[in-house]
Design a protein that fits this description.
Elements (H helix, E strand, L loop, with lengths): L11 H10 L3 E5 L3 H9 L4 E4 L3 H4 L11 H14 L4 E5 L9 H15 L3 E3 L7 H9 L4 E6 L5 H4 L9 H17 L3 E5 L3 H10 L4 E4 L7 E4 L1 H4 L17 H17 L11
Parallel strand pairs: 1-2, 1-8, 2-3, 3-4, 4-5, 5-6, 6-7, 7-8
This protein binds 3-methyl-2-oxobutanoic acid (KIV).
Amino acid sequence: MSVYKEIKRVTTHVLSEMKLKGEKIAMLTSYDFSMAKLVDQAGIDIILVGDSASNVMAGNETTLPITLDQMIYHGKSVVRAVNRALVVVDMPFGSYQGNSLEALNSAIKIMKVTHADAVKVEGGKEIIESVERILSAGIPVMGHLGLMPQSINKYGTYTVRAKEEVEAQKLIEDAKLLEEVGCFAIVLEKIPAALGTKVAQQLKIPVIGIGAGGGVDGQVLVIHDMLGISQSFSPRFLRRYLNLAEEIQGAVNHYIQDVKSKDFPNEREQY
Ligand code: KIV
């Protein structure tokens, strides 16, 4: 049983204590009020308003098309629902890579309008000026290394990253750099488990994995994937806890039959 379950509000300080005490951090995505309320009430530590909203909410093939205003809309909806979890909003593609002033303005807009607790950005050395400038305004930043979906056009594939020594070494250096400038945590996506463990051991800040093995400080999944709403996405790292697609389709079929057969509404279901 978590010793942190009873705390009123998860902060970045609570997360670093959890790492110190060896308690794993549980993180999930949410994009709307109703889902975020359920996820928060269940006791999740971090809710990520991920730019995966571009895929699972808007039906885009990649995360690239989602805009800053769309992320802000999702962020506001989630924050309204949450009482306990730390809420992190993904900075969308194009809102922080270009120059650090633009990054700062995007991050300030996210924080001012959504009232979220932190932002997340993808990348290491290449975006470090932007990260430092956002941090200088007092905005907590979560890093994201390994598979970085916003760079899909550079790599061309969603396969496991940092299998080769050179890329693994760069990832370790980037992770250390993000810690050094002041990020409060980083996400590592789809990398060898041994590398995930190594990074988590070398960093003081929490390292949250998605397909990075069990040796990191916490785990994150996309809520639509773990609930079995999205059906076509089945990477090895995904554990499905429900088959909600089947449940929803079963319920909708049942409703259709009830309407067509005039079973619904019955006498008690009308005025
Ligand atoms: O956008 C997202 O959902 C993410 C997670 C996969 C970590 O960045």
